[in-house]
DNA sequence: TATACGTGGTC
DNA sequence: TGACCAAGTAT
């Protein structure tokens, strides 16, 4: 096991020099701003989140501001970020914060975890980055850095394991856990990337087990591919794009126009309604949830 | 635990 | 050029 201090110093120094200037990391960032960023960043690159985050925070600077809107407005302004159920959950999250927490984002990990759309990672991230809590933030970047540097594997396991949690906890510094967490994430995002890691720029390449052992290729089953073309997901995306653009009820023919396969189209539409992303009105039209 | 869930950029 | 990947969550 590598001594934690041997990782801390170089990673933190590297972060001081290389951290991106992101608005949710600014001194004046609010817990709500951090929470919004974390939801938007789930499975979504920073560059696509940036403009939506700015618009969102200007429109809804507080949880209460969002909570009084219909959920469809959240879905509309989510734009093309992807996974629009996140917009719905963020709206539900705002309502829960407004109704049950006096409009203030909770600082406690367990309380955050109970909110819609907030799972293990996001609860730790908000508790740590917004409130200074000492939590292990295990996102895909951190998991990859630890897998390589400590375990010597090219990639972490598919699902977060107990061993990974133990390791992350063990590496957590007594002081400055939030900065350590964001520093490791940044290292994974900018240097220790999935496909072409920039080991020449890495502050811990000298003790990285994976590099020291010759960067063995990932063994085991191929990682699950994300099919998309022709799937229900693509169909749902097409349908929802029509509803977002409409600003009002949409006749069925407008939806029929964007996807040929009748059976799949109906299934996808039903799915959107089941998920609460669309409403079917008595007159046969469709719209974003009110 | 495996699967569904958007979108767009990269090599 | 199509597979892979991006600060995951819910079921």
From TrEMBL:
Write out the entry's keywords from A to Z: 4Fe-4S, DNA damage, DNA repair, Glycosidase, Hydrolase, Iron, Iron-sulfur, Metal-binding
Domain HhH-GPD as annotated: residue spans? 40-190
Q: Entry's InterPro entries?
A: DNA_glycosylase, Endonuclease-III-like_CS2, Endonuclease3_FeS-loop_motif, Endouclease-III_FeS-bd_BS, HhH-GPD_domain, HhH_base_excis_C, HhH_motif, MIG/MutY
GO terms (BP aspect):
base-excision repair; mismatch repair
Gene3D superfamilies documented for this protein: Helix-hairpin-Helix base-excision DNA repair enzymes (C-terminal), Hypothetical protein, domain 2
- Transmembrane segment boundaries: none
GO molecular function terms here? 4 iron, 4 sulfur cluster binding; 8-oxo-7,8-dihydroguanine DNA N-glycosylase activity; adenine/guanine mispair binding; metal ion binding; oxidized purine DNA binding; purine-specific mismatch base pair DNA N-glycosylase activity
Query: Pfam families per the record?
Result: EndIII_4Fe-2S (PF10576), HHH (PF00633), HhH-GPD (PF00730)
Its family remark reads: Belongs to the Nth/MutY family.
Q: Does the keyword DNA damage apply?
A: yes
Cofactor(s) required for function per UniProt: [4Fe-4S] cluster
Which organism does this record belong to? Nonomuraea endophytica
Enzyme Commission identifier(s): 3.2.2.31
User: How is this protein named in the record?
Assistant: Adenine DNA glycosylase
In the UniProt record, the signal sequence range is none
Question: Which reaction(s) does the protein catalyse, per the Swiss-Prot or TrEMBL entry?
Answer: Hydrolyzes free adenine bases from 7,8-dihydro-8-oxoguanine:adenine mismatched double-stranded DNA, leaving an apurinic site
């Amino acid at each position: 096991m590598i001594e934690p201090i041997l990782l801390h110093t170089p990673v933190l120094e590297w972060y001081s020099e290389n951290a991106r200037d992101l608005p949710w990391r600014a001194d004046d960032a609010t817990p709500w701003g951090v929470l919004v960023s974390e939801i938007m960043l789930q499975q979504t690159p920073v560059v696509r989140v940036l403009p939506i985050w700015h618009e969102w925070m200007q429109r809804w600077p507080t949880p209460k501001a969002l909570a009084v809107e219909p959920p469809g407005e959240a879905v509309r302004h989510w734009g093309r970020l992807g996974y629009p159920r996140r917009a719905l959950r963020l709206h539900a999250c705002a309502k829960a914060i407004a109704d049950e927490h006096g409009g203030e984002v909770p600082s406690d990990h367990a309380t955050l975890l109970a909110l819609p759309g907030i799972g293990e990672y996001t609860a730790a991230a908000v508790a740590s980055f917004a409130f200074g809590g000492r939590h292990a933030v295990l996102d895909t970047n951190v998991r990859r850095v630890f897998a390589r540097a400590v375990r010597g594997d090219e990639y972490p396991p598919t699902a977060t394991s107990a061993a990974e949690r133990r390791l992350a906890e063990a590496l957590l510094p007594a002081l400055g856990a939030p900065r350590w967490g964001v520093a490791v994430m940044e290292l994974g995002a900018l240097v220790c990337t999935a496909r072409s890691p920039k080991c020449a720029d890495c502050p811990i390449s000298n003790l990285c087990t994976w590099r020291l052992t010759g960067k063995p290729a990932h063994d085991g089953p191929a990682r699950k591919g994300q099919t998309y073309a022709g799937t229900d997901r693509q169909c749902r995306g097409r349908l929802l794009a029509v509803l977002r653009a409409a600003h009002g009820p949409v006749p069925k023919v407008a939806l029929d126009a964007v996807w040929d396969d009748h059976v799949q189209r109906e299934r996808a539409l039903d799915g959107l309604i089941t998920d609460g992303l669309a409403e079917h009105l008595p007159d046969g039209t469709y719209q974003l949830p009110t």
